Amino acid sequence: MGIFSKFKRYNFNMASSKAVDLFQQGEYEKSKDIFLQLLKMNYAPVECNDYLFEIYYNLGDLDNALLHLNNSLEINPNNIDNIINKGIVLYELDKNDEALEYYNNALLLDDRNENARVGKLSVLVEQGKYDEAKSFYNSIVVNTNEDYILAMYATLLYVLNMLDDALKYSNKSLQINNNNVEYWNTKGLILSRLKKYDESLKCFNYALSLNPNHINSLINKGSLYDELSEYDEAIACFNKALQINANDVVAWANLSNSYRLSKDYDNSIMSIDKALKLNPNDEILWDKKGLYLDEMTKYDEALICFDKALEINPKSINVLINKANTLFHLKRFNEALNVIEKAFSLDGNCRDIALVKIKILKELNMNNEADILEKEAKDMPEIEDRSLIHGKLFY
């Protein structure tokens, strides 16, 4: 190697060290510029692409993050960390089928990798494949001391209603990191669902002592007050959350529910309309508005909301049930039966669907069919209530 080549290599190494230092200091733009120049000169392409992936990811530019991640994987396709990272990025881009493929690929390389396991579980939960998610979880033995992974398991198992295990992992995550506001918020949610309301409230209050502006804890504390029928306290929590972020859809949606529970329907509709203005493509929000209008006996307006929800998700069982109920209230029994049959075709083993169908059949004097279904319905599971979860499940 000649003197010039040695000098160039020395300068490259110096530049790389400078870029790494800037990255560690959070100076992502400056670090990015150096790594891009080094990459143009084909210096350490794997290292440069890996750092550029992290830089773009931290800057929220997922498309460019994915570009550099793909570059690294072309050079080293069996790098399990990058395979998992690609799963994470695809998950955040709502490309869940592709994300699941990469998590499965990672598990083929190492079936005990907890990042790959929790990633796969997250995708299955996000897709609503709860039975498959439970089956996958039951097939593994969790073995990690990483607090964020333990907290992820706690959150996912809370969604799956596997509350004993959820609480176990929540407690373990807090034993490792007692000052993480998200972990206390998660424990509060789990305890609330276990109906341990005093303990739950202590968790939300502790989370808010760590960060008084933590919107999720304020919202979940408000929801807890709703459970306790303390609607003024609930409304105060949601309003405080909205003072912090007036565009928080979940806060508006929960505020609308508190007003509904306190029979203040005007403010309930105003609040759900605020949520829908911010997110008009949310099936659950349209469904909630339809339910509120049904309670107000504004059945025709309720049907419009259910139809909008079904435009977004034609296979929503909850919406089909609610639409059938509203048609029942209008005494449009044949139409109600057609709608509930659609729900039944999606899930023939659901008590909620069966009970609606039974009352419709009785109104249509189809009593034999109603009696048979009534006996079968006793052994059918109920639909678990859908919570409004704040965003994706990764911390």
UniProtKB/TrEMBL annotation:
GO CC terms of this entry: cytoplasm
Gene3D superfamilies recorded: Tetratricopeptide repeat domain
TPR repeat residues: 46-79, 80-113, 181-214, 215-248, 249-282, 283-316
Keyword presence, Signal: no
Keywords for this protein: TPR repeat
Record SMART domains: TPR
UniProt KW Iron keyword: no
Superkingdom of source: Archaea
GO biological process: anaphase-promoting complex-dependent catabolic process; cell division; protein ubiquitination
UniProt-listed Pfam families: ANAPC3, TPR_12, TPR_16, TPR_8
PANTHER family, A to Z: CELL DIVISION CYCLE 16,23,27, CELL DIVISION CYCLE PROTEIN 27 HOMOLOG
The protein's name in its UniProt record: Tetratricopeptide repeat-containing protein
Organism, as annotated: Methanobrevibacter millerae
